[in-house]
Design a protein that fits this description.
Oligomer: homodimer
Number of strands of chain A: 34
Number of helices of chain A: 38
Strand order of the largest sheet of chain A: 15-25-24-17-18-19-20-16
Strand content of chain A: 15-25%
Chain lengths: ~950, ~950
């Protein structure tokens, strides 16, 4: 080991920073660790951080190479640097008159939360504590700091269980009959210091060291040891960090803002984080330490006051923070302390901000030339745009959270509780009340009641339940699957955590968080700023994906246009059938036993549908409109089975001769006939159109006649007819033949020519698996990822709430697959369908119309697999636009960095591999298909 | 065209056959067509077919080359051959005294049902008809033949609509007030002949030709023309048959069995087609024509009688048919006619036979050295074995079919109708009645009632509905989804096609056909012959797939062993919980609000489950047993929601103070909590074990304790623990960890060491898509193709009956995908999972336990994709064994025929392509996975 010692003794183990100069710099992360390099960089940049020094990572490696002993020469270098530190700070380590205290922190190349806790106030002992008390004029502060240091040192360095100190503290408080630590007096704390020292002696078998140099060296060694504690090893393993990097040790002077009226402490932002306005923003306290701000005993002053009290310090602070903003090209959130007129910056980091502020800051920084548009786009999170488009809970309001459900549709609302759609309509329209509709779950029957309510609360159902989807489409606030509320049997009240709420009581909802709030809470309406439009305009220049909206009626379509939608990706025709004037015809059609009666009901519906489509075409002038043919099972249009059963049973018991009984029984009988155990997998989608071709005929005729009218008026609409739930190309062909025939009939009748497309939803695994066959027939695919998720994962979206919650808790699922697309499963099928579809029909149009179309992470996926567009609720259109822009930008940036890529060998082959893989996959698709066909059963 | 004529005149256009010698032979299919070559071959082989001649296919091509004119010289050759024919038959064409009649048939190289109808009795005219009448002594026969010939000639040759003749016939019958053609007298028929000739004149614009040579030439030309009629062109297109092959024309003498007592006609088999016994078998009528046998006016004699009546003819017939059997190496079904003591063979073909006969014949023919074992295996259809294993409807019974449902479980049963499981138990056990349980659909609650019933009839549900699956498991007859029966509201009767059946009325079921039969129909029990065992033994030597059974209780397991099962592929543990002594504990567990109460209920269930498993292990000595952990949603163990709602509502109305009301409401409340809109996609499978780990713990403990007991007793069982409904490897890991911990605990407690495996069902698309990840954790996969079909196709098996029926009718589906695996969709996923699974774990054990495991076509698929075993209901085990053998045999034979393969270029690359494709697929799997991962959303 002699040679090691010798070599080591010549090495530079310690790098100093302070007084505006550092021996290291920002590039030396390998040697000084991330934290040490950062401190050196800040110091060199003229930021007045408290002085200190860093012991290198190499030293740590030598410590391990040398059987856990520090190399010879280190102690000397530490002593030398300590002297420099004392000089820089004008204090002395261990000197009771003018005490220098230090912090000790670990710091490796990569941030490792698994490593050592920070030790603060190192240098305190029975003597120096009195010096601090005198300097701050605050006995209580000094002894509180001391008792904290002892327990920190005991637990971190001597490995005594923290709990033992905590218990002694609790016992003391119990003895005094007080609850808060802040209620302890200076004498109480002195007593605790005695107790803590006793614990340390008993547990560690030796006294708490009074020698400050011993404290320092022991702490240094504890940092080295922490590199190989269980937590750190586990963390490195999890994050693939090499074990031979070692950790540095940072020793830095402590500063105090409570050393008189020329001292103080504060926090601030370089711009207003709430509005984004470019003003210096913050608050501070004179003669105070950080803890005082947190304890909330004194009210801090606005930062402007500092300019009056200490103009030089203010000017210096303002200058430094502006420089930091320029340096980091972002709003800075900083902490500072003034010790006897001298400013120290303790921390600076990118400031958190509201979405409104984020946009304004990004736009203004671009104009100031501080950042590029690329950077501006990266600065705003798509999901935060929700805040801008919906009302929010007044941030100043006092809240009582009663329960938490799923944040199914953003926004905030307050209203009186109603329990039925009928009551909602009556209260809202006749009595002009604000109401919140509370239901176990909603169904299409409830549509009108949902429409007049301020918000919707359901006890069951997930992020893509009926209530959630409909509410999001309208931009209406909804909390779904709030399992804690128990609706009473009579349906006139609900209970939540022991409290009962009756019809007419006020409640409020926060759709952004899923919170159910007690009483009437103030909400604030959104305002769209000029910067918003400008920012979105920039975003649009980046994206490759088109963004369309899911909209069923002109009102929603217009809203979607306002938000920048470039067409309708999904019009659900069934939503139109629930309107009051149509439902009777729909029911007549379903109840018809003769074909002629069914045709007659459809004839009644035809002109209504035609005018629906005409309205959509009109509001979407020049943009494509995709219309999906009838999708839900027919029983959705009839009363609910169990309700009808109960009604009939009650009626039979009470009044068996009631004239309505016969009719109700007839309906019940049809409802029973149509009843399905798993309606999601039942008689719906194109299966309806195949069983009842006359429904397809009527709907296609309505589309074609509306298109003909538009063309006659000069609006060259190109309707896209979408056949739902296709799993077999023959289903598609069946419906396509009907559609083509009817469109041709209408063209002839009206003497108008127009283009149209016929395509399908890809929403069953089998459709994705056989997408090549389907693409030979279909002109476009729209991925219905809601249903595709249901079938691929075997999760009913209406029932999955509880299971998904349990899975998220158990870390089986990272994200709700109904919110963010499941890439490994559903995504694999989408990728397959994209490849097979394009192989069979290279110009096929590909889009997505599931709820994922408005989820940023899913939009990213859609961009990556190369869809043509995404379609989402009108209120999510801006989110999708921004997410699409960011996906395209990220791709552009990644393509620009070939050098960086070379440095990281792991990342290098990725893009090429993707391309190559996709190519190879395409090649073997045919072979696989052949192979599978070969393996097909023959008639045995 | 001169040259064509010249060339043609030298050509041989006509080939004669007759008198034991033919100019052509069996290899001349190109020139003589399939039929012509066959007739030549039979003639050369000494089979006395009526003489005739064949006009070659070349002639047909010359006809077309020559603007639809026959080549010069043809007419002469026909005349020459006609003279030979007259000589051979001892009759003269057009001679009223001794009339030769002929048939004219088309016949190309490949059989083409799309071509021309046969013309019979050609040569009849107003004069010869009298000759036939005299020769047969049967005016009626002669004129009936004549009127048939006129209409046939008119429609086929003169292209008059057949309907016009039919209408005239109908008018005649109406006029006479008779219903059947056989009621027409000779005079009526003479009158019809007049009418038919008139029609012919009016429609064709010319008289029906009385000249027999004209009849012949016109018919010949009609055959040539028919080569290019629409039907034939369409058929060729569909079957990829070249248009330039041309058709031959076969002209053959007609013979008559009604020419006196030295004439006759009959049919026969070379062995008994019902039992397989090697005896000459058949029946005949003296002085009769084929029609007489069909009309059923006279009772035919057994063939033995012919030996007395015409010993020489009998000997000749016996000799010929035995020779034919040897020649074709199969039982022959033949038709013959004796004309004035001369025997003619009209037809011979492979005879249809019962399954019992098929096996006996195959086994005996192997022993006789007539066929190889390979051939024997190919001679028996797996699905026909069902006949051997279940009772059948007595073939002699008179049947009234009331309705047709799905043939859900084979067998036959008669019993009195009961409508509830409770009534079934009471009637069967207390009153000792045979009952048939009739339900809308069955649920696990009905199990005990199903068990005591002779058969089960449901109005709803498909081939894999609860009733179907359970019944097949027990080998019990079941007709499911019989939509025509309407069960009355009071549940005490049902209506079917206007008839009403009450509780206690007799009905019968044919599970093999799905027929519901009126009254008590006689059934016959099956008997398993020695040949059966021998045959199955041979089959076992071929197959590569192992065959296991799905069995839940020792009784079923023993049955499965009897049928040759090599283990249990699926034990559904939930079936055990429905037993009377267990359900209360199960319900207590589900209703428990405290964890402790749940644990207590589970403790009660533990010993019962342990003894269940012990029983299975005992009966499966030495064979593997796969036990699936609890799968169905918990609400299946509670009363039905709507029934409970009705009960509570009625009770509340009638007696609100009833003491049971509180309890019922409590259960209802839990049922409501557990209610799911789509239980198939709900809280079931491993999701239960993840939410309630204590259930998994109890079940695994029961398995491990039972295994420990077995090992202590010397039975080295290796239990396979199967985690159901996994879609995500983390689900599997969660349950695997619990299982491993519990097994280790038990091993320690009992001090016994034993091996076990933990694997999973692949029954969700996502499981197949991520099979590589799952295989890293799981030791085996069992494909649950029922659920995989449900999710991949989006069909609920309980609801799909109607849709699938509609799809089969519209030709969208060829086969019910719940019966035969959907290769293009579900099969693609299975293939993917097999490849990915083996890639990640080369020795992974792969099986199938869905209902497809007993379907021959699906077994073929399982063999092709290389599974290790199939598992099916005990009663389908022999079917699966034979199907597996045939799949392996087919592969072996295909591999042996490299020359044959070379001749058919289309088939050549198939096997190689499969191998290559599978290999390439494996290679790119990794690349694809990488690509998909790359495209994964990042946290935005």
């Amino acid at each position: 080991m002699g040679s090691t010692k010798k070599a080591a003794s010549k090495k530079k183990f310690v790098y100093f920073f302070g007084n505006g100069k550092a021996e290291g710099n920002g590039t030396m992360r390998d040697l000084l660790g991330g934290k040490g390099a950062g401190l050196a960089e800040m110091t060199n940049a003229g930021v007045p951080v408290p002085a200190g020094f860093t012991i290198t990572t190499e030293t740590c490696n030598l410590y391990y190479a040398n059987k856990r002993k520090v190399p010879v020469g280190l102690d000397d270098q530490i002593k030398t640097n300590l002297v420099k530190l004392e000089k820089a700070m004008g204090k002395k380590f261990g000197d009771p008159k003018n005490t220098l205290l230090v912090s000790v922190r670990s710091g490796s190349k990569f941030s490792m939360p698994g490593m050592m806790d920070t030790i603060l106030n190192l240098g305190l002992n029975d003597v120096t504590v009195q010096g601090i008390a005198a300097a701050t004029g605050n006995d209580r502060f000094a002894y509180d700091s001391y008792r904290r240091f002892i327990s920190m040192f005991g637990s971190v360095v001597l490995e005594i269980e923290k709990d033992i100190y905590e218990k002694a503290l609790s016992a003391k408080k119990r003895e005094l009959g007080i609850k808060l630590d802040t209620d302890l007096s200076a004498d109480d704390l002195k007593d605790l210091v005695m107790k803590f020292k006793k614990i340390t002696r008993e547990e560690a078998g030796k006294d708490f060291p009074q020698d400050t140099m011993t404290q320092l060296n022991m702490s240094r060694d504890a940092v080295f040891r922490s590199w190989n504690n269980d937590r750190a090893i586990y963390y490195r393993k999890m994050h693939d960090i090499a074990a031979n990097l070692g950790t540095a040790v940072n020793i830095q002077a402590m500063v105090f803002g409570n050393m008189g009226n020329d001292s103080g402490t504060g926090v601030g932002f370089t711009r207003n984080p709430s509005t984004g306005e470019n003003v210096f923003y913050g608050e501070y306290l004179t003669n105070a330490q950080g803890e005082d701000v947190v304890a909330g005993v004194r009210t801090p002053n606005p930062i402007a006051k500092l300019e009056e009290e200490m103009p030089a310090v203010f000017k210096q602070l303002h200058g430094i923070t502006k420089r930091l903003e320029k340096h980091y090209k972002d709003v800075q959130d900083f902490e500072f302390t003034i010790e006897k007129g001298r400013l120290y910056m303790l921390q600076t980091r990118a400031g958190k901000r509201t979405a409104q502020a984020a946009i304004r800051i990004a736009v203004e920084m671009v104009k100031e030339g501080l950042i590029s548009k690329d950077m501006a786009i990266q600065r705003v999170l798509p999901k935060d745009l929700d805040q801008l488009l919906h009302p929010i809970i007044d941030p100043k309001a006092d809240l009582t959270v009663l329960a938490k459900g799923l944040p199914a549709s953003p926004g905030a609302a307050a209203g009186k509780i109603v329990f039925t759609a009928g009551d909602a309509v009556r209260w809202a329209e006749e009595l002009d009340e604000d109401v919140i509709l509370v239901r176990e779950e909603t169904c299409p029957d409830d549509i009108h009641g949902m429409e007049v309510s301020k918000g919707i609360l359901t006890a069951r159902g997930g992020m893509t339940s009926h209530a959630a989807v409909v509410a999001r489409g309208w931009g209406k606030c909804c909390v779904a699957g709030c399992e804690d509320i128990k609706i009473a049997e009579d349906g006139k009240s609900f209970e939540v955590n022991g409290k009962t709420f009756k019809e007419g009581d006020w409640i409020s909802l926060n759709g952004a968080t899923g919170e159910l709030l007690e009483g009437k809470v103030q909400t604030m309406d959104p305002e769209l700023s000029g910067e918003f439009a400008e920012f979105m305009n920039w975003a649009d220049q980046y994206r490759k994906l088109k963004v369309r909206a899911n909209a069923d009626i002109p009102r929603d379509a217009n809203k979607a246009r306002e938000f920048g939608a470039e067409g309708i990706g999904l019009c659900r025709t069934e939503h139109m059938f629930f309107a009051e004037d149509r439902l009777p015809h729909m029911r007549a059609m379903i109840l018809a036993t003769e074909e002629e009666a069914r045709h007659e009901a459809l004839r009644q519906l035809l002109p209504m549908q035609r005018s629906d489509f005409k309205g959509l075409f009109d509001s979407m002038q020049g943009f494509p409109v995709t219309i999906r043919l009838l999708d839900p099972p027919l029983h959705e249009f009839l009363p609910k089975r169990e309700e009808l059963m109960l009604e009939v049973a009650k009626l039979e018991a009470a009044n068996p001769d009631a004239p309505e009984l016969e009719e109700k029984k007839k309906i019940l009988s049809r409802v029973q006939e149509l009843h399905e155990l798993n309606p999601m997998l039942g008689h719906r989608g194109c299966r309806l159109g195949i069983s009842y071709p006359e429904i397809t005929e009527m709907q296609v005729r309505a589309i074609a006649e509306a298109a003909a009218e538009c063309h006659a008026e000069g609006n060259k609409v190109v309707p896209e007819i979408m056949i739902p739930l296709v799993g077999n190309v023959l289903e598609f062909k069946d419906q396509k033949e009907i559609a083509e025939r009817v469109v041709n009939e209408v063209k002839k009748e009206k003497g108008v020519k127009f283009d149209y497309q016929i395509g399908t939803m890809i929403e069953l695994p089998r459709a994705a698996l056989t997408a090549d066959e389907i693409a030979e027939q279909a002109q476009f695919f729209s991925f219905g990822t809601n249903d595709l998720t249901q079938t691929t994962l075997g999760f009913s979206r209406d029932d999955a709430g509880k299971v998904i919650a349990c899975y998220e808790e158990k870390k089986i699922l990272k994200k709700d697959p109904f919110q963010t697309i499941d890439v490994a499963g559903v995504g694999q099928l989408v990728q397959m369908a994209v490849d097979k579809g394009r192989m069979a029909r290279p110009n096929i149009k590909l889009g997505i119309c599931g709820e994922h179309g408005g989820d940023p992470a899913s939009v990213y996926f859609c961009h990556k697999v190369g869809l043509n567009y995404v379609s989402c609720s009108p209120y999510r259109v801006p989110i999708a636009r921004l997410a699409a822009a960011r996906a395209a930008l990220e791709e552009k940036l990644a393509a620009k960095k070939p050098k960086a890529a070379k440095k990281k060998p792991a990342a290098k082959p990725a893009k090429k591999a993707v391309k190559k893989a996709v190519k190879t996959v395409k090649k073997v698709k045919k072979a696989v298909k052949k192979a599978v066909k070969k393996a097909a059963p023959k008639g045995k």
